[in-house]
Amino acid sequence: MSSSETPKDAPPPEQPAPVESSSSVAAADESKEEEISFTVKSIADNKIPITVNRFISVADLKQKLAEPSSIPADRQRLIYSGRVLKDDQTLDNYKIQNGHTVHLVKGAASTASAARGAVGGSSASTSGAGAAGGSTGTSGATNPPQQLPSMAAGTGMNPLSRYANHIPLPSADMFGPDGGMGPPPNPEQMLSMMEQPEVRASMNALLQNPALLESLIQSNPMLQSMGPEVRNMMQSEEFRRMMTDPAIFRQMTQMQRMLGVGPFGGGLGGAGGAGAFPAPGVTDQTPAEQQNQQQQAGNETTGTGAAGAPPINPFAALFNPFGAATQTPRAPSGAGSPGSPPPNPFMLFNPAIFGQQQPPAGQTQTQTPGSGGEQTGAAPTGGAAAGSQQQPPNPFNPFLPPGGGGGAGMDLNQLQNMMQLLGMGPGGAGGLGGFGAPATPVDNRPPEERYAEQLRQLNDMGFFDFDRNVAALRRSGGSVQGAIEYLLSGP
Amino acid sequence: MSAKVPRNFRLLEELEKGEKGQGSDACSLGLDDGNDIMMTNWNGTILGPPHSVHENRIYSVKLHCDEQYPDVPPTVQFLSRINLPCVSQEDGKVDPTKLQCLGNWKREYTMETVLLELRRFMASGNNKKLPQPPEGSTF
Which residue numbers delimit the UBA domain (chain A) (predicted)? Predict the structure, then answer.
């Protein structure tokens, strides 16, 4: 503060002299060992560790902080334990202790701050002028507060603006019209973006920032209405991981599509969604009267669920019920998908594609998954077909004629053609090779393990001959549908 | 929540969070009297939310946690003058029926919750445009 007014309201140790010498001849005399170390948390998560004498005044502390925080002393607001620190008090008055944290925010260099600080009695206007005139060479002196553009004054408070210079901020449209919580505008784009480590890192940083979360919540009525819990949720580790892990993101997109809420999934109506998405508990509901073999298969299912699943389905590792749910629809729908690698998001389209592909099986290979999905969206009936097509694996309906549901008109040759096109070889090597799915390493697992899920389903449907089942699955590249066709047409 | 956290444990937790700055940057919280073993009276500050009339302002509030806290919400009183529908213009008291998180208090809520909710309230709808008394004035 200014040298003209400090003496009258400052405690004795405070020196009116310039900062360099202020901290402080007199104070040092009184108590040399009364040093405290604490953290000053500034904007942009800038943490400034500082060690000072506990008897220096708040004003002195601000002078010390001016440089590391690059906020002129007269614009600093220090907050500790729910109190705004007043310039004329010592740190000791506020009982700041080792290891504690003082918040530093940037306020407008207005007279109001001086008014708040000036308990000592000088009127707001004079102390404001005094501060501006007498401050020790900081920019405040040359910059009358009134002329500061309001934007500049605001920068200290806008949690987004602090990132403007530090990290490449994702463009606004990435967050979507509703503040980022809805389905992303374009999942593929989003995915490729999230593969980049920088983007992930900055997302992480953003999500770690409570202030930003705050403004996110504020800007989104949906979140607002969820009340305070949403804040906890968004601050949790888990949530951050979900937001930033591309694999998880992919899974989420997949699930969205399965449920028919994805961007392209409009056509997969409620019925379709439900059909393609058996209840999570399904795996546990094996009828007791099934044979031992079935039991064995069931056990193996859980085995792969635990060991084999993580690479295939990250969700399974995280949330078991989800894992079960996503596994189940995947296996039947994905021609040759069991061995196919997770990085192929296109496989996720399978339920939809399936519906589209049946009639012209031969041409499907050239069809891009995106267009497949879109077509489904455009033609709701296709979606419905895809949905009912998924019925056979449903254990409650074990004796449904194979290909029954929607696939009435399907003929075996077509289907096998398609199977071959989609899922080649025992490894089910990444099907849909037409658009460059990454090559899968050869799957060396024994068939009962590799096809555990499919075997279980076949068992559910009443096909108990293990060897034949395996043979059929081999032929079909792991597709239950194809295997059934094969089994029924019986060589 | 399986076990009920007793009042003093809860308050100690909140105190530490406030002093060490582990909570939100948008608000701050601390004991009014560090020697008060009952930890009844608290001070809080709320940084005015950006893009509102409250931007760049710092609001001071008092929170009072009686013996039944956290089974009942704390009473909250603004020290800084503020024009807000849930705040009495006479004494700065926050009307619990007008602030959702106080009206529907849950045991898991903390004083920080209240401060952040107040801040959110300031930024919502019309509240961010309400004319405000001069900065620094108090009740």
Answer: 446-490
